[in-house]
Amino acid sequence: MSEEVRFLIEFKEDLKIYYQSKKNYYKSAIYEEENNDELREKINRSSSMAASYILLSGLPTTIKYAPPPAIGGFAGDIDLIANIFNLDKLQISESWLYDLIDRSIGIYAYWDKQKWKKWLNPFYWIGQIIRLPFLLINFSGFDSSKIEISIIGKMYKLIFSFGTGLLLVLELYSHYKNLKK
Question: Distance (Å, rounded) from C-alpha 129 to C-alpha 149?
């Protein structure tokens, strides 16, 4: 299990405990303020990491929100992670947040299964080597996606793909010749 999956599972469990204690508070007069404050603090501290893991999985943390027409109010994108403690006020069920976390966990679990297939595939590594300049541009803080999809970026990838393919064929041919000797 990856670090991301472990973190998101723990984050979801903390949220469940928090929301359940909040529901229990409304049902009874007994309320453990200290424990809930510590849990709320823990959730606040880990929410940015949870948001980054969810975003890295390719899922948005926002939903389209429109209040009931009779009530009116703000309509637009609502960030579920940024509004963890306001979901009830916005009349958004916490199940939306749980579903988002579960989908992200599912994506990471899928990637964990697929990574061995990638790592053993030589074409994956060739592709990574060809993308190396774009990864370096990204690492330096620039947005390489626009460069990568531009004509120059596509030509670069095409030329290096053909060059790498040609080198591979020549290398295989030389090995074949050596085996015949």
Answer: 17
> In a structure prediction context, what are the per-residue pLDDT tens digits for the chain, which is 181 residues long?
889 999 999 999 999 999 988 877 655 545 455 557 889 999 999 999 999 999 989 899 998 887 777 777 777 888 999 999 998 888 888 999 999 999 999 999 998 888 877 778 888 888 888 888 888 887 787 877 788 888 998 999 899 889 888 988 899 899 888 887 7
CB 20: neighbour CB atoms within 10 A?
Answer: 11
Task: Check: pTM over 0.70? Answer yes or no.
Answer: no
Instruction: Work out the burial of residue 85: count CB atoms within 10 Å of its CB; fewer than 13 is exposed, 13-18 middle, 19 or more buried.
Output: middle
